[in-house]
Amino acid sequence: MSVCFSPLGLATSDSSRGKDPYLWLEEIQGTRSLSWVNRENHRSVKKLSNMKGFTKLKDGIFSNLSSKNKIPHGQLYEGHVYNFWQDQKNKRGIWRRTTLKNYLNSEISWEVLLNLDELSKKENVKWTWGGVTFLRGGPSCLIALSREGRDAFESREFDLQTISFSKFGFTHKESKGFMNWEGRDSVYMGLNFGKGSLTKSGYPRIIKVWKRGEPFENAKVIFKGDENDLSVWAYRIDHPLGGATLIERSLSFYESIYYIKNKQNQFVKLPLPKGATIYGVMGNKVFVHLKDDWASQNEGWSMGSILVLEKDKLIKGQIKGASFYRPNEERFFEGMSFLKDGVMIHQIHNVTSEVIYFKYEGGVFLSPKKINIPKMSKVSIGLGDTYENISFLSFENFLNPETLAIYDLNESTLSPVATKSTPPPFSLENFTVKQFWAESKDKTKVPYFLIASKKMVTDGKNPTLLYGYGGFEFSLLPFYSSTVGQHWLKRGGVYVVANIRGGGEFGPSWHQAALKKRRHKSYEDFEAVSEDLIKRGVTSPKKLAIEGGSNGGLLVGVMMTKRPDLYKAIVCQVPLLDMLRYSKLLAGSSWIGEYGDPDDKEDKEMRPYLKSYSPYHQVRPDISYPDVFLLTSRSDDRVHPGHARKMAKKMLDQGHKVFFYETSEGGHSGSGDLLEKSFTLALKFSYLYYSLGFSDEL
Q: Residue 539 has what pLDDT?
């Protein structure tokens, strides 16, 4: 049997298609697999929940998550602010609204529209809030409800006048996909209609229009994608200057083909590159973000730019327009929001947020103005109404909870007309945030944030928790976590966030640097940050824990098998771990654009490369690994719980020390009941205290 060595320096056999003895754990509701899950849950809970002070820890986390002092973030629509809220009384949550005028006050009076705790009890279903789609000028909206936090959801039409579900309104059974308004009496649908209606990734392939009053089965097919596509979506973009109705045919996570509805109610294909994304429409202006350079009609438009193209020309298959926003060596596009008379752009500078505003006046966009926000912060632009000039911006960083600033962009100074803030649960004046740069294997400088006590001694003895993600162009900007503050920093721990390649912190190129066969660059970056922490005397391998979820779960799984000598504890949440079967499980095939296809018949090197870092295939019985805590969810219909189950079982059979816990609800995002979420977080911190040598008293 031949053996080769991968870019990660791990031995890998060319015999990778043998039978997997743990496949039975992929049966999510199988009798045998659930019996195993229940035993492992009991074993882990018994050990971790028996630590002194566990109940106090759990109650403290629940108190933080359910605090009434949280900011009631809202979605502005037609003069009302809508908010979904969870607290100690409403553990599943309530959906409510108030007027904009009332929302600007320090004390807000709310009108409750829907109580999920009451609905769940009435229907004997653990409902989770999935969001709302409004109909402009109409009395109705579409509410999405998810069972136990799944990505799949059920839509129900809700009457905003009678404050009740519409008796004969639009609705559909549980499915991944979408239901969006076409008009007052019709909807676009991309759902599971039966055989052939979904892509291999489990997302909609067929779009139908369903008219009010006709049977669901009679809905008309208006578009079909390919089975190998990621998905197809139909949606409206509204704006007082004029909007558009689009169909987006996603070929992969990063490639799409767009179709626009013309005056003849036909959808025509737009002449855009596949790596382009349409962000918005204002009258005849279509805003397009580029993930790659694009040379069109003697114009050289660069990667990461925002273009403004003329809609009427696009419909005719022509390109006419100009660059609206162009990144430079220091600043990169992160997102944008549209208002009645302007555009707000969220950009990243040195891994922190900046916001600039372009006012639209007299048919042109004026020079941008910068909005003053706290330094070293992360900005979130709230859900606004494109028919208003009101914008919700929230700011946070590692040591300061969220502050919501509400701007009226009719004001020339762009100063907030109201602010709301969350009081910190404990004093933060004794802590500090520093940014350092580690040097990766290929000499690339990789930034990371370190949050610690001002009195921290660099003696290598500080319990340190290092968090990372590094995928899907997702940027890890400074964020606030009361749970981390209360139950890690306050106890003397150091918290670190690594901005490794694969994310979007430095634009599309930072992400593309770790795609597919360059994936090992992410892991080399994370390894470099780990070693830099040790070199600086912040911590040592006996005091260093790492944490990641989803793609971040894959990251920490790789680090455990690649460099077991560097770490003492691994928190691996809702992870991908079997990289030879990931594309066959649930939504896995939708990530082929990120990782590559293990069954690619044209690229024979892809499967061996994936196996070279696949944690499930690299774990060995003769190697001593750090403690690992694998957490997953039975209701996760995005990343299959079989990844964590199989890894735990295999490692236990090899004699390794493993903690495992699977929740029955919460889905991939961990949403749902706050009590269950608090319990799971308490288990995680108990594990970290136990592994890194904190005292038994929590």
A: 98
Instruction: Say what the pLDDT of residue 18 is.
Output: 62
Residues in Cβ contact with 412 at an 8 Å cutoff, skipping those fewer than 6 apart? none
Active-site residue (options: 201, 550, 633, 635): 550
Residue 657 backbone dihedrals phi, psi, to 5 degrees: -90, 115
pLDDT at site 5: 30
Per the DSSP assignment, residues forming a β-bridge with 349 are: 331, 352
By the 8 A CB rule, do 135 and 160 touch?
Answer: no
Residue among 325, 323, 183 nearest 245 (CA): 183
User: Is the torsion defined by CA of 557, 448, 549, 133 positive or negative?
Assistant: negative
DSSP 3-state of 404: strand
Catalytic annotation on 668?
Answer: yes
In 311-463, DSSP assigns E strands to 321-325, 331-339, 342-349, 352-361, 364-365, 369-371, 378-381, 390-397, 400-408, 416-421, 431-439, 445-453
Question: Is the separation of the CB atoms in 25 and 36 below 8 Å?
Answer: yes
CA distances from 263 to 244, 257, 266 (A): 11, 20, 7
Answer yes or no: are the C-beta atoms of 147 and 157 closer than 8 Å: no
Residue among 392, 395, 393, 394 nearest 377 (CA): 395
Check if the beta carbon of residue 212 is closer than 8 Å to that of residue 170: yes
Give the residue among 630, 638, 671 at the shortest CA–CA distance from 126: 671
What proportions of the chain, in percent to the nearest 5, are helix, strand and coil? 25, 35, 40
- Asked if residues 31 and 56 have their Cβ atoms less than 8 Å apart, the reply is no
Query: What is the dihedral sign for C-alpha 643, 649, 655, 660?
Result: positive
Per DSSP, what are the bridge partners of residue 260?
246, 268
User: Identity (one letter) of the amino acid at 667?
Assistant: G
Structural domains in the chain, CATH included, are: 40-62+432-692 (3.40.50.1820)
pLDDT reported for residue 694? 78
Task: Quote the tokens at residue 176.
Answer: 């991944």
Look up residue 691 and give its two tokens.
């592994």
Do residues 279 and 336 touch, judged by C-beta distance below 8 A? yes
Quick one: which H or E segment has residue 208?
Answer: strand 206-211
Q: How far apart are CA 14 and CA 6, in angstroms?
A: 11
Distance of CA 154 to the CA centre of its chain: 21
Task: Please tell me the predicted confidence (pLDDT) of residue 410.
Answer: 84
In which residue ranges of the chain is pLDDT below 70?
A: 1-18, 297-298, 412-413, 695-698
**CA dihedral defined by 193, 634, 549, 292, rounded to 10 degrees?**
-10
Q: Which residues pair with 127 in a beta bridge?
A: 147
Q: Which residue is listed with tokens 């040195």?
A: 350
Angle between the N-to-C axes of helices 674-692 and 54-65, in degrees from 0 to 180, rounded to the nearest 10: 130
Task: Determine the distance from the C-alpha atom of residue 273 to the mean position of all C-alpha atoms in its chain, rounded to a whole number.
Answer: 25
Contacts of 468 (CB under 8 A, 6+ apart): 476, 497, 498, 500, 526, 529, 546, 548, 552, 555, 556
Amino acid at 158: F
From the candidates 346, 394, 668, 678, give the one annotated as an active-site residue.
Answer: 668
123 CB burial (10 A radius; 0-12, 13-18, 19+): exposed
